[in-house]
Amino acid sequence: xxxxxxxxxxxxxxxxxxxxxxxxxxxxxxxxxxxxxxxxxxxxxxxxxxxxxxxxxxxxxxxxxxxxxxxxxxxxxxxxxxxxxxxxxxxxxxxxxxxxxxxxxxxxxxxxxxxxxxxxxxxxxxxxxxxxxxxxxxxxxxxxxxxxxxxxxxxxxxxxxxxx
Length: 164
Known about the structure:
This protein is mainly alpha-helical.
C-alpha cells in the first residue's frame, strides 16, 4: 500500500514537472517570437532612416545609390537572405557615418544613432531569449517527451554580431 502511494506521488510530481517544462518552453518560444518582431521593426526603421539619408541633397550620387540599394535589399530580403542584407546595410552605414566628411542632417544622425542603440538592445534581448529556449529544449525530459512539439528551433542570425 505504501509503495502504491509512493508511485502515485512520483507520477504526480513527474506530471507536474512535465507540465511546468512544457508551459515554460511555450513562454520562451513566445518570447523569442516577440523579441524577433520587435527587432524586425527596429531593423525596418533603420532601413527607412538609411533611405532618408540616401535622399539627402548633400550625399554624392554614388553613395546614395549604394545606400539606397542596401536599404531596399534589407527591407525586402527573405528570412534566408536577411542576415547578409542586414550586414551589408550595417557596413554601408559604418562607412558613411565613419567618414565624418559626409554631411548628414543632425536630426537624421541622431535618429540613426538612437535606432542603432535600440537595435543593439533588441539583439541582446533576442539572443537571450533564443539561448534560454535552446537551453530548455536541450533538457532530457523535453527531448524524451517531445515537449517542444513542432515549434522550430530558435536561431541566431549572423548579422546580430556586426550591427553598427
